[in-house]
Amino acid sequence: MKMFIKISIFLIFSAVILVGLMFAFKICPPKGPWPTPPWCADKAFIRPTYNLNLEVSHLNQKKAVNMADTWGRNYNFGMIENTRDNIDNSFDRVKEIGAEEVYVHDFHRAVYDDSSKEDFTSLNYKIVDEIFLNDMRDESLTDKDVASLAEAAHQRGLKLGIKHNMAFVDIGKYLVKGLSGNIESSVNEDYKKFNSGHSEEWIRDFFVKWEARMIERAKIYNKYGVDIMSITPTWMGPTFSGQEALANELWKKLITDLRKEFKGQIHLELSVYGILDPTNAEEDYSKYDYYKSADIKEVRLYNFSIDKYKVKNNPTSLDIQKGMSNLLVDLNSWGAQNNTKLTIFFSPFSYPNAINQGIIEYHDILNETTKTTEKNYEHQADAWQGFFLGIKELNNLEGIIASGMWWDDEMDPDVKVKISISPSFRNKPAEEVIKQWFQK
Q1: Is-contact 354 380, C-beta < 8 A?
Q2: Which of 65, 66, 86, 83 lies closest to 74, judged by CA?
Q3: How many Cβ atoms from other residues are within 10 Å of residue 400's Cβ?
Q4: Residue 294 falls in which region: left (phi positive, over 0), alpha (psi -120 to 50) or beta
Q5: Which residue, 219, 283, 299, 225, is CA-closest to 251?
Q6: Sign of the torsion angle spanned by Cα atoms 185, 187, 188, 192
């Protein structure tokens, strides 16, 4: 009896502590037969409508949506939410917008021997699955995930593409005390250190490991009918300055070998700097032609990152259109000169003058810049309108990828991530701009 009483007291005490923590951090349990805490009462979400009077014309380009590059739990920093619960409602939204393709992200990480931890010159690492406990957020796609995503996409008449986020550092370290609030600069410092110069030995070793990883994933993607897979490791992908000829041949080999396992389209990413700003590029693109072996060649644009295309501060959609037209015409011309069709990934942020300034780390909720930056939905909508007006008749730009749509309808301050200033267009006027152009 005494043991029963002790166990009961322990359980009651634990429950009180748990409820107290849930209240303090506004954490909600999953829906179930148990009572819903009062701070978790369902709020009737009213989807905003925007009646925009736009100049819109038909686009010849393929149209796609790129989902926010996160997968698994805690993407709103609430610990309970899970992207897996939002596949259907998100893909419904992608289809409603008028897209033909949808992209999601798989995740990978380098795990070093203890003696070589974060020695970026070391070959003593393996490329393995990303796990939730590493950064309390992102994880690799499982077989079940791939099957669910492919089925949901195909049920809606969408092609499914999978891209890759690769981490060469233990990214969980950016979340520990002392670095929180300074994530962006810490990541940039590590990325610069990582790409300060790779030896021939390191490059050959990397391609052996990356090709093995891609073939391993290709077998899974092919099994479940994935339509498009990327070969580009993003977030912390290597560059090959001074070794471009070697990298070019190794990329070609990877594509050739991958086609034996994957029956869909092969996608890769090219740098806008490498194409249009050689003096500031990390690699010499004149030595590359491996991209011609792929089916989809994507160029990412977040803003006017190259100075000569920048426009005046607080620009109108017409100002943005002029800058975009110059930038897109130059990309179109490069494609024509190199007998290459490009796909343009566009992802403007929704804060004032973002089209000139670019990326802000909206996940870094302790960062003062992030905390004090105000949203500006109209600026993001203007950026999208200017983009569409600039791209509509450029025939060497064959595809448009609208990025990056959030996995649910949540918005700060109800969640911790500052989605309001992010490039997500979901429930912002930009979504209506994209929808009108995609459906014309």
Answers
A1: yes
A2: 83
A3: 23
A4: beta
A5: 283
A6: positive
Instruction: In whole angstroms, give the CA distance from residue 330 to residue 298.
Output: 15
Q: Which two tokens stand for residue 16?
A: 């009180």
Task: From 369, 384, 363, 366, select the one nearest 428 (Cα to Cα).
Answer: 384
pLDDT tens, the chain, 440 aa long: 555 455 555 555 555 566 555 555 556 665 544 455 655 655 567 899 898 999 999 999 999 999 999 999 999 988 889 999 999 999 999 999 999 999 999 999 999 987 666 688 999 999 999 999 888 889 999 999 999 999 999 999 999 999 999 999 877 777 664 455 677 777 778 888 899 889 999 999 999 999 999 999 999 999 999 999 999 999 889 999 999 999 999 999 999 999 999 999 999 999 999 999 999 999 999 999 999 999 999 999 999 999 999 999 989 888 999 999 999 999 999 999 999 999 999 999 999 999 999 889 898 888 888 999 999 999 999 999 999 999 999 999 999 999 999 999 999 999 989 999 999 999 999 999 999 999 99
Q: What is the rounded distance in angstroms from the CA atom of residue 284 to the CA atom of residue 276?
A: 11
Q: What are phi and psi of 215, to 5 degrees?
A: -70, -40
Angle at 357 between CA 331 and CA 180, to 5 degrees: 125
